[in-house]
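To: structure desk
From: M.T.
Subject: fold request, one chain
Message: Could you run this one when you get a chance? Sequence is below, nothing fancy, just the single chain.
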Amino acid sequence: MRAGYPAEIAEQIALSDADLRRAEEMLRNGCTPELAVQILI
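Reply: Done. Structure tokens follow.
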């Protein structure tokens, strides 16, 4: 994922049913990758 997530977290998101657009938006709005993945999956 090119949104800026570390590879391990990007893999977790990719393997889930998470909305990838929402995942990108969360980072743009200042959410940390660690918090975003907890919220998304």
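Reply (cont.): The helical segments are 7-14, 20-28, 33-40. Let me know if you need anything else for the meeting.
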